[in-house]
Design a protein that fits this description.
Threonyl-tRNA Synthetase, Chain A, domain 2; 10-stranded mixed sheet; elongated; binds adenosine-5'-triphosphate
Length: 746
């Protein structure tokens, strides 16, 4: 029976006396080198007419299917497609890479030319010293050629053997050869003599040129074989090529029994599903590890693997294959230089340009040196790492991106208090460095206002017509419409554990942040939290579980890893534990694109960040987007926990004033807190009284909107005895709203 015979014939066979060996035994018999068993397809015919491979044959399960040997054309075509090499080299398809390559080539050529130009005198001297030896070689060579010296050993050999015939034959041949060679040599000599006399008669420049050329040629001929004329302008530091032997040797040094067994059986030659290829400034190796070995097992031994490959640790990046691959698929990228030492291209937004939070912005580079981008809109971000790995730099970078989108309102909190985020202050709507009581009170008031803002935004979005807001979330158009107040709000917090572990307000911080993480992204509020202690207390579960983007630099254990990168991340091979202490700024980025990626974040130091922030400030000033702290009108009250506009209104009014005109109220508020409310009352000197009253009433009405309070017409007799009908507030509404806010905040 051939393997292609239909199953219908197989079931008519007599029962085998010995049951077929179990599947595991079959696989083990050939050392695990056989392909895995294909899954048994479902039986299509209940009466057994059309039997399949999974069929039970009188107690014996037929493991190998009859059509196993049939070529699966579709699978083969798919496999072939997967192995197709790009028609145009990837570096040529990418404009930045092509530009970088061209820049490198020009720089390289320039360096080599300059290096040798500077050494021309040395090379001249070298050639001059070697030229006598060259002349000697030319003379001897010409003499030996003319006399047919190279055939001399043959003639001697014939004479020694007393082979007269051969000797005479060789002699005759030599005479013939020497005769015409002498003529050629004589002609050459005469030509040289003529040329020499022509040079003697020529001018000094020609003589010098001919002499230099002669010396150069004779010097070149006189150069010993083991010496060079030119020095080496570029010492090659090219890392040795990665070959399958090197990879197998390195894997065999990891002390994994299954690998060693497979190496002994097959030498590891069948582990490579695709050729080892050059991939950017390194090598890409794809591997199907032996049965039972997972990509995780290798990643855990990254340092040993690097030792086995004889490469610095920063060059060796093992990763699991694509998500739909089996667990034994390993993608190993071996760089020529450690990732942290490879020259990074300049950040495209460092000197020019603005960002759009709805669009991807460059954040870092991958192992190949290509830009990796992030889109901040509609995500919450958590950043975790052990201290000194680059967490604050990443937070600052993300906030700079936000700063370069003039619409974005930045709330910046540096709870470490060292001023690392101070470059952002010139563009921040709210900014605080430190964890003193007043800093906490300021942040709490800001967060409470943000939660109120979140609720306002949900209502605004809910009430917008479908054609303006089809997905019930902020769109770029809505964010740019100042009247709606749906601009992006980006809250960046360094060392966020200070908030969540606060003995008095920790729970409230957690509650508000959870709300912002869950509901904020849809309404344009982006919360970015960074912590150096990613545990359940520093990064409460409801927050870590709902973050859309995760950035993890080096962490020490798998709990911290999973806290930042998501549950089971470590188990599935996304391991920030494998980064070394020298991998500063290198992180796993999850949440941008389909797969987590290893990224080296852009290095923007504090002075550069300051320059960028000042550029962003100028852009904001020009477009009227400078607000809050940056504009010197910090809207957030900074005295006392409960201080809000509502509390301030109650403070400047009395119980007897059931209703009060808005313009009167604004003047009183401006007296109470000039820094906060002064701008509402501070109108151009030529403003008419009516316009001033309208402007003040509008400012107050806008400020009360987030609390759901509407102003009303108040028809009263003023202090001058005249009746006036102007916009105003009902004091009771304010008291009720304050009660509600405080209760919600507890
Ligand atoms: N992208 C980067 N490339 C290279 N080096 C970097 C990068 N980012 C940060 N570093 C280096 O890492 C150092 C620590 O960075 P940073 O202050 O951001 O760490 P941190 O994790 O916030 O530390 P801490 O927890 O103590 O605040 C910096 O001084 C900087 O030199």
């Amino acid at each position: 029976m051939t393997t292609n015979e239909p199953m219908g014939e197989v079931i008519n066979l007599p029962v085998r006396p010995d049951p077929a060996p179990p599947a595991t035994a079959a696989a083990g018999a050939d050392g695990g080198a056989r392909p895995p068993f294909p899954p048994a397809p479902a039986t299509s015919d209940p009466d057994g007419a059309d039997h399949d491979a999974g069929e039970v044959l009188e107690g014996t399960v037929l493991v190998d299917q009859p059509d196993t040997g049939r070529p699966d054309i579709r699978a083969r075509m798919l496999a072939d497609t997967g192995q197709r090499r790009p028609i145009i080299a990837p570096w040529l398809r990418d404009r930045d890479e092509a530009r970088a390559t061209a820049r490198w080539a020009v720089g390289y050529a320039g360096h080599v030319a300059g290096y040798h130009a500077a050494r021309v005198p040395l090379y001249g001297l070298r050639l001059a010293l070697r030229s006598p030896r060259g002349l000697w070689r030319v003379l001897i060579g010409t003499w030996r050629w003319t006399c047919d010296a190279e055939a001399m050993p043959l003639r001697m050999h014939a004479a020694d053997r007393k082979d007269a015939d051969t000797y005479l034959k060789l002699l005759r041949e030599r005479d013939d050869r020497v005769r015409w060679r002498r003529i050629v040599a004589g002609a050459g000599l005469a030509g040289t003599g003529l040329a020499a006399s022509a040079v003697m008669a020529a001018d000094g420049l020609t003589q010098a040129g001919v002499l230099a050329g002669l010396v150069a040629v004779l010097g070149w001929i006189g150069t010993p074989q083991d010496k060079r004329i030119l020095d080496t302008a570029v010492v090659s530091t090219k890392a040795p090529k990665i070959t399958s032997e090197i990879v197998v040797r390195a894997l065999a040094s990891l002390g994994i029994a299954e690998i060693n067994k497979a190496v002994a059986a097959t030498g590891g030659k069948d582990w490579f599903p695709a050729p080892i290829t050059r991939d950017g400034p390194g090598w890409r190796v794809e591997l199907d590890l032996p049965y039972g070995v997972t990509a995780n097992d290798i990643m855990e031994r990254r340092a040993k693997l690097a030792s086995g490959l004889r490469r610095p640790l920063g060059c060796v990046w093992p990763e699991p294959g694509e998500e739909d691959e089996h667990a034994g698929r390993l993608v190993l990228w071996v760089g020529d230089r450690p990732m942290s030492k490879t020259k990074q291209p300049a950040w495209p937004l460092a000197k020019v340009g603005k960002a759009d939070l709805f669009q991807p912005a460059p954040f870092g580079t991958d192992q190949r040196g290509r830009f990796v981008e992030v889109t901040l809109m509609f995500v919450s971000v958590i950043i975790g790492a052990i201290p000194r790995m680059g967490k604050t730099f990443i937070l600052r970078l993300l906030l700079l991106i936000a700063g370069l989108d003039v619409r974005a309102e930045l709330h910046v909190y540096d709870l470490k208090g060292t001023g690392d985020l101070s470059p952002l202050a010139p563009v921040a709507h709210a900014y605080r460095a430190g964890d003193e009581d007043e800093d906490i009170a300021y942040a709490l008031a800001d967060l409470r206002a943000l939660r109120t803002e979140l609720r306002r935004r949900t209502k605004v979005i809910r009430n917008l017509p479908k054609d303006r807001c089809p997905e019930n979330k902020v769109t770029p158009e809505l964010a740019s419409d100042k009247a709606l107040g749906l601009h992006p709000i980006v809250v960046g917090v360094d060392e966020c554990q200070v908030w969540f572990e606060h003995p008095k307000h920790g729970a409230e911080f957690e509650e508000i942040c959870t709300d912002l993480v869950k509901r904020g992204p849809a309404v344009g509020i982006v919360l970015i939290l960074a912590t150096q202690r990613p545990d359940a207390k520093s990064l409460p579960k409801p927050i870590s579980a709902n973050a859309g983007m995760r950035i993890c630099l080096k962490v020490m254990d798998h709990d911290a890893n999973d806290m930042v990168l998501g549950t089971s991340a470590h188990k599935t091979g996304i391991k920030a534990t494998m980064f070394s202490l020298s991998d500063k700024g290198i992180c796993y980025l999850r949440g941008e694109g389909d797969h987590p990626r290893i990224v080296r974040s852009m290095y923007i130091d504090a002075p550069t960040a300051e320059t960028i922030a000042h550029r962003a400030r100028a852009m904001r000033k020009a477009t009227g987007y400078l607000t809050g702290y940056a504009a010197g009108t910090d809207h957030t009250p900074d005295t006392g926990d409960e201080a809000t506009i509502l509390a301030d209104i109650l403070a400047v009014t009395t119980d007897t004033e059931d209703k009060i005109w808005s313009h009167v109220l604004v003047d009183r508020l401006a007296d109470l807190r000039p820094a906060v409310y002064g701008p509402w009352a501070d109108l151009p000197p030529n403003t008419s009284e009516t316009d001033a009253k309208t402007a003040k009433a509008t400012a107050l009405a806008n400020a009360l909107k987030p609390y759901g309070i509407r102003t009303v017409q108040v028809n009263r007799t003023g202090p001058n005895g005249e009746r006036e009908n102007s916009r105003g507030i009902v004091r009771e509404h304010i008291a009720a709203a304050l009660d509600k806010t405080q209760n919600a905040g507890r």
